[in-house]
Each structure stands twice: as structure tokens, then as C-alpha cells.
């Protein structure tokens, strides 16, 4: 195992221990994937969740613009289902879903 240290711009020294993935710290509450294949699967699942959540946002906006109450209700039902699918994926990955971002912002 190798150990190295680097001096930051503020003059402090940060030490790192060599090893697989030791340089990267995982975000709190998010388990770090271990192998490269697992990382790829993790990213693919995150992409799927983002796609579902973006589709839900799009369907909601279409429902808001619809002149037909029946169509608006159908679109909202579909948006709700897409949102549930995306959130289920995030929960399975150990990522806490975030609700209520700024309007018009994509996932």
C-alpha cells in the first residue's frame, strides 16, 4: 500500500492512501460501487431513474397546458407512475430522491 501527500493551495497537506477507489469519497448516504462493472451498472440505473423523472416532469407540464380535463388527468396519472418508477430505482441504489426542484429545470 502506498501513501502520498499533496499540498493544497491553502498550504495544508492532504494525505491519501493508495488503493482501489481510496481517492474518491462517496457522498454521505450513498454506498460507493466497488468494481468497474458494478460502477457501470450503477450509472446505468441512475440514467434510467433520471429518464423516468424527466418524463414525469414533461408529462406534468403537458397536463398543465392541456385544454382537456380528461387528457390532463391521464397525463398526470402517467407522470405519477413515471415518478414512482424513478424514485424506486433511486431508493434501490441507496440514493435519497429529491422532490420539488425549481420549475423548468430538467433532471
Secondary structure: elements and pairs:
Blueprint: E1 3-7, E2 13-17, H1 36-65, H2 69-93
Antiparallel strand pairs: 1-2
Helix pairs in contact: 1-2
The coarse overall form would be elongated
Strand order of the largest sheet: 1-2
Catalogue the unreliable spans: 1-23
Number of helices: 2
Instruction: Tell me the span between the first and last alpha carbons.
Output: 40 Å
Mean pLDDT over all positions: 77
Give me the Rg, rounded.
20 Å
Structural class label? mainly alpha
User: What's the SSE pattern?
Assistant: EEHH
- Major sheet size, sense and barrel closure: 2 strands, antiparallel
Features:
2 helices; 107 residues; two-stranded antiparallel sheet; 9% strand; elongated; mainly alpha
Report on this structure.
The protein is elongated. The protein is built from 2 helices and 2 strands; from the N terminus they run ββαα. It has a domain at 33-95. With 107 residues, it is mainly alpha-helical. The protein has a two-stranded antiparallel sheet.
Amino acid at each position: 500500500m502506498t501513501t502520498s501527500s499533496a499540498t493544497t493551495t491553502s498550504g495544508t497537506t492532504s494525505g491519501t492512501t493508495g488503493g482501489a477507489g481510496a481517492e474518491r469519497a462517496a457522498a454521505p448516504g450513498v454506498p460507493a460501487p466497488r468494481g468497474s462493472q458494478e460502477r457501470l451498472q450503477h450509472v446505468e440505473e441512475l440514467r434510467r431513474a433520471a429518464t423516468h423523472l424527466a418524463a414525469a416532469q414533461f408529462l406534468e407540464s403537458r397536463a398543465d397546458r392541456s385544454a382537456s380535463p380528461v387528457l390532463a388527468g391521464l397525463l398526470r396519472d402517467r407522470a405519477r407512475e413515471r415518478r414512482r418508477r424513478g424514485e424506486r430505482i433511486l431508493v434501490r441504489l441507496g440514493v435519497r430522491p429529491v422532490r420539488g426542484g425549481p420549475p423548468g429545470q430538467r433532471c
